[in-house]
Structure formats: structure tokens, C-alpha cells
From TrEMBL:
Residues 79-108 have a biased composition (Polar residues). Residues 46-65, 79-114 are annotated as: Disordered. Residues 46-58 have a biased composition (Basic and acidic residues). SUPFAM superfamilies: Homeodomain-like. InterPro entries: Homeodomain-like_sf (IPR009057). This is Transposable element Tcb2 transposase. It comes from Elysia marginata.
Length: 114
């Protein structure tokens, strides 16, 4: 189900402030009543924008990022696939080639093929 846009949220708040009950606003805007209850509650907390979401946990630590960059600085012809085979992520998981390439690209490096 698509999210209610911020404009529609403000429109619903305007209808609330005009004195319309939630059931009437629900019928006019074709929105579920529970959605409107949540919008009203968020407005009482001084915001109608979405709260920030938690991100996916990183598969390697910052220290491992630094070590990957250092290894590729010392050996310019080290491939990303070789690094991914040698490096283990959190909980001893394998890491993908793109996980190796990401910290290298932020450091201005590329994994080279021999």
C-alpha cells in the first residue's frame, strides 16, 4: 500500500482542525481510519514527516574497510575477488566482491586484475 504523501497528511490535519471527525475525513480522503489516527498522533508530537528508518547492518567493520584499502595500496594488482575470498565478515560470513569494491572506490582505488 503506498504511503500517504506529506501534502495529503497536511490536508488531513486541516480537516481535523476544521472540526471534522476522523470517520468523515477517512471517507473524504479514502484513507483507513487507523492511518489518520497515526497522523493525528504524529502531529501532536510536532511532525508529520516519516521517522528515519534503521539501516541494514554492515557486513564488515570499519577496521576491515581500512585493512582492505591498506592491502590494495600495498599490492595494486590484488583483485577484488581474491580479497573477498580472504576476508571474512561479521559472524565469519563470506563477503561479496562488491563489499570489497565499495571501500576501495570511496578511497579512490580500483581492484585491478593481474
Amino acid at each position: 500500500m503506498p504511503r500517504l504523501s506529506e501534502i495529503d497528511r497536511h490536508r488531513a490535519l486541516g480537516l481535523f482542525q476544521a472540526g471534522l471527525p476522523i470517520s468523515e475525513v477517512s471517507l473524504r480522503m479514502n484513507v483507513n481510519r487507523m492511518t489518520l489516527f497515526k497522523i493525528k498522533r504524529l502531529h501532536e508530537a510536532d511532525t508529520v514527516s516519516d521517522r528515519p528508518r534503521s539501516e541494514r547492518p554492515r557486513s564488515i567493520t570499519q577496521r576491515q574497510d581500512t585493512n582492505l584499502v591498506r592491502n590494495h595500496m600495498n599490492n595494486r594488482f590484488l583483485s577484488a575477488s581474491a580479497s573477498s575470498r580472504q576476508t571474512r565478515g561479521r559472524n565469519n560470513q563470506r563477503i561479496s566482491v562488491n563489499t570489497v569494491r565499495r571501500p576501495l572506490s570511496t578511497s579512490g582505488l580500483r581492484a585491478r586484475c593481474p
